[in-house]
User: What shape does this take?
Amino acid sequence: MNEMPVRNNLDAFWMPFSSNRAYKEQPRMLARAEGMSYFTPDGREVIDGTAGLWCVNAGHGRREITEAIQKQAAILDYAPSFNMGHPIAFQAAAKVAELTPDGMDRIFFTNSGSEAADTALKIALAYHRARGNAQRVRLIGRERGYHGVGFGGMSVGGIGPNRKQFGAQLPYVDHLPHTHAPNQQAFSRGQPEFGAHFADALENLVALHGADTIAAVMVEPVAGSTGVLIPPQGYLDRLRALCTKHGILLIFDEVITGFGRLGTHFGSEHLGVVPDILTMAKGLTNAAVPMGAVAVSEAVYTTIVEGAPAGIELFHGYTYSGHPLASAAAIATVDLHKSDDLPGRAAAIAPYFADAAHGMKGLANVIDVRNLGLVAGIELAPREGKPTDRAMAVFRRCFDAGVLIRTTGDIVALSPPLIIEKPHVDRIFETLSDAIRAEAA
Ligand SMILES: Cc1ncc(COP(=O)(O)O)c(C=O)c1O
Assistant: This one.
Protein backbone atom coordinates (compact mmCIF):
# COMPACT_ATOMS: atom_id res chain seq x y z
CA MET A 1 0.00 0.00 0.00
CA ASN A 2 1.31 3.44 -0.91
CA GLU A 3 1.73 5.67 2.09
CA MET A 4 0.13 9.07 1.78
CA PRO A 5 2.65 11.83 2.46
CA VAL A 6 1.72 13.48 5.76
CA ARG A 7 1.32 17.21 5.32
CA ASN A 8 1.80 19.08 8.54
CA ASN A 9 -1.15 21.45 8.85
CA LEU A 10 -0.03 24.55 10.67
CA ASP A 11 -3.42 26.28 10.79
CA ALA A 12 -4.89 24.96 14.01
CA PHE A 13 -2.11 25.95 16.42
CA TRP A 14 -2.53 29.64 17.30
CA MET A 15 1.06 30.28 18.26
CA PRO A 16 1.82 32.34 21.39
CA PHE A 17 3.77 35.61 21.18
CA SER A 18 4.32 34.98 17.46
CA SER A 19 3.72 36.48 14.09
CA ASN A 20 1.49 33.55 13.06
CA ARG A 21 1.18 34.74 9.47
CA ALA A 22 4.90 35.29 8.87
CA TYR A 23 5.89 32.10 10.66
CA LYS A 24 3.43 29.88 8.83
CA GLU A 25 4.66 31.29 5.51
CA GLN A 26 8.21 30.31 6.42
CA PRO A 27 8.21 27.85 9.34
CA ARG A 28 11.30 26.99 11.34
CA MET A 29 10.88 23.66 13.11
CA LEU A 30 12.87 22.04 15.87
CA ALA A 31 12.22 18.32 15.99
CA ARG A 32 14.76 16.88 18.40
CA ALA A 33 17.27 18.05 20.98
CA GLU A 34 20.31 16.75 22.78
CA GLY A 35 22.85 18.47 25.01
CA MET A 36 23.63 21.91 23.58
CA SER A 37 21.78 21.38 20.31
CA TYR A 38 18.46 21.23 18.57
CA PHE A 39 17.98 19.34 15.31
CA THR A 40 15.57 20.34 12.55
CA PRO A 41 13.25 17.72 10.99
CA ASP A 42 15.82 17.25 8.19
CA GLY A 43 18.56 16.63 10.73
CA ARG A 44 20.36 19.98 10.64
CA GLU A 45 22.04 20.89 13.97
CA VAL A 46 21.18 24.22 15.59
CA ILE A 47 23.22 25.20 18.64
CA ASP A 48 20.95 26.44 21.40
CA GLY A 49 22.09 29.92 22.43
CA THR A 50 18.96 30.51 24.49
CA ALA A 51 18.34 27.33 26.52
CA GLY A 52 15.02 27.09 24.71
CA LEU A 53 13.33 30.08 26.33
CA TRP A 54 15.77 30.60 29.22
CA CYS A 55 14.71 27.28 30.65
CA VAL A 56 16.71 24.21 29.60
CA ASN A 57 19.54 25.12 31.95
CA ALA A 58 20.91 21.59 32.38
CA GLY A 59 21.03 21.01 28.62
CA HIS A 60 18.60 19.02 26.48
CA GLY A 61 17.46 15.45 26.87
CA ARG A 62 18.91 14.83 30.32
CA ARG A 63 18.37 11.13 30.89
CA GLU A 64 18.06 11.53 34.66
CA ILE A 65 15.06 13.84 34.25
CA THR A 66 13.40 11.89 31.45
CA GLU A 67 13.64 8.62 33.36
CA ALA A 68 12.28 10.20 36.55
CA ILE A 69 9.23 11.44 34.63
CA GLN A 70 8.70 8.08 32.90
CA LYS A 71 8.98 6.20 36.17
CA GLN A 72 6.59 8.52 37.97
CA ALA A 73 4.00 8.35 35.18
CA ALA A 74 3.82 4.60 35.70
CA ILE A 75 3.46 4.89 39.50
CA LEU A 76 0.97 7.71 39.96
CA ASP A 77 -0.33 9.74 37.04
CA TYR A 78 -2.23 12.30 39.08
CA ALA A 79 -3.56 12.92 42.54
CA PRO A 80 -5.11 16.11 43.91
CA SER A 81 -3.34 18.40 46.33
CA PHE A 82 -6.45 20.08 47.77
CA ASN A 83 -6.75 18.62 51.26
CA MET A 84 -5.10 15.48 49.86
CA GLY A 85 -1.49 14.65 49.22
CA HIS A 86 0.93 12.46 47.37
CA PRO A 87 4.45 11.93 48.69
CA ILE A 88 6.40 13.19 45.71
CA ALA A 89 4.97 16.74 45.90
CA PHE A 90 6.22 17.05 49.50
CA GLN A 91 9.58 15.60 48.48
CA ALA A 92 9.83 18.05 45.59
CA ALA A 93 9.11 21.03 47.84
CA ALA A 94 11.75 19.90 50.34
CA LYS A 95 14.24 19.44 47.47
CA VAL A 96 13.59 22.90 46.04
CA ALA A 97 13.96 24.35 49.55
CA GLU A 98 17.50 22.95 49.60
CA LEU A 99 18.39 25.52 46.93
CA THR A 100 16.33 28.56 47.94
CA PRO A 101 17.90 31.26 50.12
CA ASP A 102 18.12 30.42 53.85
CA GLY A 103 14.81 30.91 55.58
CA MET A 104 12.78 30.77 52.35
CA ASP A 105 11.79 27.18 52.71
CA ARG A 106 8.03 27.20 52.17
CA ILE A 107 7.18 26.34 48.59
CA PHE A 108 3.86 26.87 46.78
CA PHE A 109 3.66 25.04 43.44
CA THR A 110 2.17 26.50 40.25
CA ASN A 111 2.44 25.44 36.60
CA SER A 112 4.23 28.39 35.04
CA GLY A 113 6.09 31.60 35.69
CA SER A 114 2.94 33.63 35.06
CA GLU A 115 1.05 31.70 37.70
CA ALA A 116 3.98 32.02 40.06
CA ALA A 117 3.93 35.81 39.61
CA ASP A 118 0.19 36.07 40.28
CA THR A 119 0.49 33.70 43.23
CA ALA A 120 3.29 35.81 44.72
CA LEU A 121 1.19 38.98 44.42
CA LYS A 122 -1.81 37.29 46.04
CA ILE A 123 0.35 35.95 48.88
CA ALA A 124 1.63 39.49 49.50
CA LEU A 125 -1.93 40.82 49.73
CA ALA A 126 -3.00 37.95 52.01
CA TYR A 127 0.02 38.58 54.24
CA HIS A 128 -0.91 42.18 54.92
CA ARG A 129 -4.57 41.32 55.43
CA ALA A 130 -3.57 38.63 57.94
CA ARG A 131 -1.66 41.32 59.85
CA GLY A 132 -4.71 43.55 59.97
CA ASN A 133 -3.42 45.81 57.19
CA ALA A 134 -6.09 45.14 54.58
CA GLN A 135 -5.56 48.63 53.17
CA ARG A 136 -2.12 47.60 51.87
CA VAL A 137 -3.33 46.69 48.39
CA ARG A 138 -1.00 48.63 46.13
CA LEU A 139 1.44 46.62 44.01
CA ILE A 140 4.56 48.25 42.62
CA GLY A 141 6.31 46.90 39.56
CA ARG A 142 8.91 48.44 37.31
CA GLU A 143 8.91 49.81 33.79
CA ARG A 144 10.14 47.18 31.33
CA GLY A 145 9.50 44.42 33.89
CA TYR A 146 8.11 41.08 32.71
CA HIS A 147 6.12 38.88 35.04
CA GLY A 148 4.21 36.76 32.58
CA VAL A 149 0.77 37.18 31.13
CA GLY A 150 -1.79 36.74 33.91
CA PHE A 151 -3.67 39.90 34.86
CA GLY A 152 -1.49 40.39 37.94
CA GLY A 153 1.85 39.89 36.22
CA MET A 154 0.74 41.83 33.15
CA SER A 155 -0.39 44.80 35.24
CA VAL A 156 2.64 44.89 37.50
CA GLY A 157 4.84 44.23 34.48
CA GLY A 158 5.96 47.22 32.51
CA ILE A 159 6.12 46.18 28.86
CA GLY A 160 3.78 48.38 26.82
CA PRO A 161 2.82 46.03 23.98
CA ASN A 162 1.99 43.25 26.47
CA ARG A 163 -0.54 45.54 28.21
CA LYS A 164 -2.00 47.85 25.59
CA GLN A 165 -3.98 45.24 23.67
CA PHE A 166 -5.97 44.27 26.75
CA GLY A 167 -7.27 47.54 28.15
CA ALA A 168 -8.27 46.78 31.70
CA GLN A 169 -5.44 46.28 34.14
CA LEU A 170 -5.38 45.53 37.84
CA PRO A 171 -6.16 48.68 39.85
CA TYR A 172 -3.79 50.10 42.50
CA VAL A 173 -0.65 49.36 40.54
CA ASP A 174 2.27 51.72 40.08
CA HIS A 175 5.74 51.42 38.58
CA LEU A 176 9.30 52.29 39.45
CA PRO A 177 11.44 53.61 36.61
CA HIS A 178 13.52 51.03 34.76
CA THR A 179 17.25 51.08 35.41
CA HIS A 180 18.53 51.45 31.87
CA ALA A 181 20.64 54.55 31.23
CA PRO A 182 22.67 53.89 28.07
CA ASN A 183 24.56 57.19 28.22
CA GLN A 184 26.09 56.22 31.54
CA GLN A 185 26.00 52.43 31.33
CA ALA A 186 26.70 51.34 27.74
CA PHE A 187 29.17 48.45 27.42
CA SER A 188 29.37 47.93 31.19
CA ARG A 189 30.82 44.55 32.02
CA GLY A 190 28.62 42.97 34.69
CA GLN A 191 26.66 45.29 36.97
CA PRO A 192 26.83 48.93 35.83
CA GLU A 193 28.30 51.40 38.28
CA PHE A 194 25.65 53.98 37.53
CA GLY A 195 22.05 53.74 38.64
CA ALA A 196 21.63 52.69 42.32
CA HIS A 197 19.60 55.87 42.78
CA PHE A 198 16.79 54.52 40.55
CA ALA A 199 15.64 52.61 43.66
CA ASP A 200 14.97 55.90 45.45
CA ALA A 201 11.91 56.38 43.26
CA LEU A 202 10.20 54.06 45.74
CA GLU A 203 10.35 56.92 48.26
CA ASN A 204 8.41 59.07 45.77
CA LEU A 205 5.71 56.41 45.46
CA VAL A 206 5.58 56.11 49.24
CA ALA A 207 5.20 59.90 49.47
CA LEU A 208 2.49 59.80 46.81
CA HIS A 209 0.40 56.88 48.05
CA GLY A 210 1.46 56.36 51.69
CA ALA A 211 3.50 53.32 52.70
CA ASP A 212 0.47 51.97 54.53
CA THR A 213 -1.27 51.37 51.19
CA ILE A 214 1.59 49.48 49.54
CA ALA A 215 1.72 45.68 49.74
CA ALA A 216 4.71 44.73 47.65
CA VAL A 217 7.37 45.65 45.14
CA MET A 218 8.04 43.05 42.46
CA VAL A 219 11.13 43.13 40.23
CA GLU A 220 13.26 40.73 38.25
CA PRO A 221 16.80 40.78 39.67
CA VAL A 222 17.96 40.82 36.03
CA ALA A 223 15.24 41.94 33.63
CA GLY A 224 15.35 39.37 30.85
CA SER A 225 12.42 39.53 28.47
CA THR A 226 12.70 43.28 28.01
CA GLY A 227 16.14 42.76 26.52
CA VAL A 228 18.55 42.09 29.40
CA LEU A 229 18.82 44.94 31.90
CA ILE A 230 21.46 44.27 34.54
CA PRO A 231 20.81 45.76 38.01
CA PRO A 232 23.18 48.64 38.78
CA GLN A 233 25.58 48.11 41.66
CA GLY A 234 23.81 48.81 44.95
CA TYR A 235 20.36 49.15 43.37
CA LEU A 236 18.77 45.99 44.77
CA ASP A 237 20.31 46.59 48.22
CA ARG A 238 18.69 50.02 48.26
CA LEU A 239 15.35 48.60 47.17
CA ARG A 240 15.61 46.00 49.93
CA ALA A 241 16.39 48.64 52.55
CA LEU A 242 13.50 50.86 51.48
CA CYS A 243 11.03 47.96 51.47
CA THR A 244 12.12 46.95 54.97
CA LYS A 245 11.91 50.55 56.19
CA HIS A 246 8.33 50.90 54.95
CA GLY A 247 7.01 47.41 55.75
CA ILE A 248 6.65 46.58 52.06
CA LEU A 249 7.29 43.02 50.89
CA LEU A 250 10.01 42.59 48.28
CA ILE A 251 9.27 39.99 45.59
CA PHE A 252 12.04 38.78 43.30
CA ASP A 253 10.81 37.22 40.08
CA GLU A 254 13.58 34.68 39.57
CA VAL A 255 11.92 32.83 36.71
CA ILE A 256 15.05 33.32 34.59
CA THR A 257 17.69 34.08 37.24
CA GLY A 258 16.83 30.93 39.21
CA PHE A 259 18.52 27.60 38.65
CA GLY A 260 22.09 28.61 38.06
CA ARG A 261 21.80 31.31 35.42
CA LEU A 262 24.00 33.81 37.33
CA GLY A 263 26.41 31.19 38.68
CA THR A 264 24.53 30.55 41.94
CA HIS A 265 21.36 28.56 42.52
CA PHE A 266 19.31 31.76 42.67
CA GLY A 267 20.18 35.27 41.56
CA SER A 268 19.48 36.52 45.05
CA GLU A 269 22.60 34.69 46.26
CA HIS A 270 24.82 36.13 43.53
CA LEU A 271 23.49 39.64 44.08
CA GLY A 272 23.58 39.40 47.87
CA VAL A 273 19.99 40.53 48.46
CA VAL A 274 17.28 38.32 49.94
CA PRO A 275 13.64 39.05 49.11
CA ASP A 276 10.57 38.08 51.15
CA ILE A 277 8.98 36.16 48.29
CA LEU A 278 10.70 34.58 45.31
CA THR A 279 9.18 33.12 42.15
CA MET A 280 10.67 30.46 39.91
CA ALA A 281 9.68 28.28 36.92
CA LYS A 282 11.54 27.35 33.70
CA GLY A 283 14.81 25.80 35.00
CA LEU A 284 12.91 24.24 37.93
CA THR A 285 12.12 21.15 35.83
CA ASN A 286 14.63 21.93 33.10
CA ALA A 287 11.42 22.67 31.14
CA ALA A 288 10.75 18.97 30.65
CA VAL A 289 7.33 19.34 32.32
CA PRO A 290 5.67 22.69 33.05
CA MET A 291 6.07 23.82 36.67
CA GLY A 292 6.46 27.04 38.60
CA ALA A 293 6.81 27.76 42.30
CA VAL A 294 6.83 30.51 44.89
CA ALA A 295 9.20 30.36 47.86
CA VAL A 296 8.33 32.53 50.85
CA SER A 297 10.03 33.51 54.08
CA GLU A 298 9.02 31.84 57.30
CA ALA A 299 7.47 35.13 58.45
CA VAL A 300 5.21 35.33 55.40
CA TYR A 301 4.18 31.69 55.74
CA THR A 302 3.48 31.74 59.46
CA THR A 303 1.62 35.04 59.29
CA ILE A 304 -0.81 33.67 56.73
CA VAL A 305 -1.04 30.05 57.85
CA GLU A 306 -0.56 30.04 61.61
CA GLY A 307 -2.61 33.18 62.08
CA ALA A 308 -5.64 31.90 60.15
CA PRO A 309 -8.78 30.48 61.72
CA ALA A 310 -9.21 26.70 61.34
CA GLY A 311 -9.82 25.63 57.77
CA ILE A 312 -8.28 26.66 54.48
CA GLU A 313 -5.62 29.30 55.10
CA LEU A 314 -5.02 30.52 51.54
CA PHE A 315 -7.87 30.37 49.07
CA HIS A 316 -5.61 29.81 46.11
CA GLY A 317 -4.15 26.89 44.17
CA TYR A 318 -4.17 24.96 40.92
CA THR A 319 -5.49 21.52 39.98
CA TYR A 320 -1.93 20.70 38.99
CA SER A 321 -0.06 22.29 41.93
CA GLY A 322 2.64 19.73 42.74
CA HIS A 323 1.69 17.47 39.81
CA PRO A 324 3.46 14.11 40.22
CA LEU A 325 5.28 14.25 36.87
CA ALA A 326 6.43 17.82 37.43
CA SER A 327 7.47 16.96 40.98
CA ALA A 328 9.53 14.04 39.69
CA ALA A 329 11.16 16.30 37.12
CA ALA A 330 11.91 18.97 39.74
CA ILE A 331 13.57 16.46 42.09
CA ALA A 332 15.71 15.06 39.30
CA THR A 333 16.60 18.58 38.14
CA VAL A 334 17.67 19.75 41.59
CA ASP A 335 19.76 16.61 41.97
CA LEU A 336 21.44 17.30 38.61
CA HIS A 337 22.18 20.89 39.55
CA LYS A 338 23.94 19.60 42.64
CA SER A 339 25.71 16.53 41.25
CA ASP A 340 26.97 18.34 38.16
CA ASP A 341 27.48 21.66 39.98
CA LEU A 342 25.69 23.48 37.18
CA PRO A 343 25.90 26.89 38.89
CA GLY A 344 29.64 26.33 39.33
CA ARG A 345 29.98 25.46 35.64
CA ALA A 346 28.10 28.61 34.72
CA ALA A 347 30.31 30.70 36.99
CA ALA A 348 33.48 29.13 35.57
CA ILE A 349 32.67 29.86 31.94
CA ALA A 350 30.96 33.23 32.55
CA PRO A 351 34.16 35.33 32.10
CA TYR A 352 34.89 33.65 28.74
CA PHE A 353 31.27 34.21 27.69
CA ALA A 354 31.52 37.86 28.82
CA ASP A 355 34.71 38.37 26.79
CA ALA A 356 33.03 36.92 23.70
CA ALA A 357 29.93 39.09 24.20
CA HIS A 358 31.97 42.26 24.68
CA GLY A 359 33.95 41.29 21.60
CA MET A 360 30.86 42.41 19.65
CA LYS A 361 31.69 46.02 20.55
CA GLY A 362 32.87 47.85 17.47
CA LEU A 363 30.74 45.86 15.01
CA ALA A 364 28.55 48.11 12.90
CA ASN A 365 25.26 48.96 14.65
CA VAL A 366 26.17 47.39 17.99
CA ILE A 367 25.21 50.16 20.42
CA ASP A 368 25.48 48.27 23.71
CA VAL A 369 26.58 44.98 25.22
CA ARG A 370 25.47 43.98 28.71
CA ASN A 371 26.09 40.76 30.61
CA LEU A 372 25.85 38.94 33.91
CA GLY A 373 26.46 35.25 34.56
CA LEU A 374 25.38 33.36 31.46
CA VAL A 375 23.15 36.14 30.17
CA ALA A 376 24.13 38.64 27.52
CA GLY A 377 22.25 41.36 25.68
CA ILE A 378 23.61 42.84 22.47
CA GLU A 379 21.65 45.90 21.43
CA LEU A 380 21.55 46.86 17.76
CA ALA A 381 20.70 50.22 16.28
CA PRO A 382 17.22 49.90 14.78
CA ARG A 383 16.76 50.44 11.04
CA GLU A 384 15.32 53.84 10.22
CA GLY A 385 11.52 53.57 10.54
CA LYS A 386 11.68 49.77 10.87
CA PRO A 387 12.18 48.78 14.51
CA THR A 388 12.97 45.06 15.09
CA ASP A 389 13.74 44.53 11.38
CA ARG A 390 17.52 44.34 11.78
CA ALA A 391 17.39 42.02 14.80
CA MET A 392 14.91 39.68 13.09
CA ALA A 393 17.15 39.52 10.03
CA VAL A 394 20.12 38.68 12.27
CA PHE A 395 17.99 36.03 14.02
CA ARG A 396 17.08 34.38 10.68
CA ARG A 397 20.70 34.42 9.48
CA CYS A 398 21.89 32.81 12.71
CA PHE A 399 19.21 30.12 12.50
CA ASP A 400 20.14 29.32 8.91
CA ALA A 401 23.79 29.15 9.98
CA GLY A 402 22.97 26.74 12.82
CA VAL A 403 22.65 28.93 15.93
CA LEU A 404 19.48 29.75 17.85
CA ILE A 405 19.44 33.25 19.34
CA ARG A 406 16.54 35.27 20.74
CA THR A 407 15.58 38.84 20.00
CA THR A 408 13.33 41.35 21.73
CA GLY A 409 12.97 44.60 19.89
CA ASP A 410 16.42 45.20 18.44
CA ILE A 411 18.18 43.45 21.29
CA VAL A 412 19.75 40.02 20.92
CA ALA A 413 19.45 38.08 24.18
CA LEU A 414 21.67 35.07 24.80
CA SER A 415 21.17 32.63 27.67
CA PRO A 416 22.67 29.26 26.73
CA PRO A 417 22.37 26.04 28.73
CA LEU A 418 24.81 26.05 31.66
CA ILE A 419 26.65 23.05 30.19
CA ILE A 420 28.02 25.28 27.42
CA GLU A 421 31.72 24.86 26.56
CA LYS A 422 34.20 27.22 24.96
CA PRO A 423 33.82 25.89 21.38
CA HIS A 424 30.04 26.50 21.62
CA VAL A 425 30.65 30.05 22.88
CA ASP A 426 33.03 30.65 19.96
CA ARG A 427 30.58 29.22 17.43
CA ILE A 428 27.62 31.27 18.79
CA PHE A 429 29.49 34.59 18.74
CA GLU A 430 31.22 33.96 15.39
CA THR A 431 27.86 33.19 13.81
CA LEU A 432 26.27 36.21 15.47
CA SER A 433 29.01 38.60 14.39
CA ASP A 434 28.84 37.31 10.80
CA ALA A 435 25.08 37.90 10.82
CA ILE A 436 25.44 41.39 12.30
CA ARG A 437 28.06 42.26 9.67
CA ALA A 438 25.83 40.92 6.90
CA GLU A 439 22.97 43.15 8.10
CA ALA A 440 25.13 46.27 8.39
CA ALA A 441 23.15 48.15 5.73
C1 LIG B 1 10.85 36.96 34.79
C2 LIG B 1 9.72 36.17 34.20
N1 LIG B 1 8.59 36.02 34.90
C3 LIG B 1 7.56 35.32 34.44
C4 LIG B 1 7.62 34.70 33.21
C5 LIG B 1 6.45 33.94 32.70
O1 LIG B 1 6.68 32.59 32.70
P1 LIG B 1 5.71 31.63 31.88
O2 LIG B 1 5.91 31.93 30.43
O3 LIG B 1 6.17 30.25 32.30
O4 LIG B 1 4.32 31.90 32.33
C6 LIG B 1 8.79 34.81 32.45
C7 LIG B 1 8.89 34.19 31.13
O5 LIG B 1 9.74 34.48 30.32
C8 LIG B 1 9.86 35.58 32.95
O6 LIG B 1 11.00 35.74 32.25
Observations:
- DSSP finds 16 helices and 15 strands in the chain.
- Residues 91 and 346 are 26 Å apart (CA to CA).
- The longest strand covers residues 366-372.
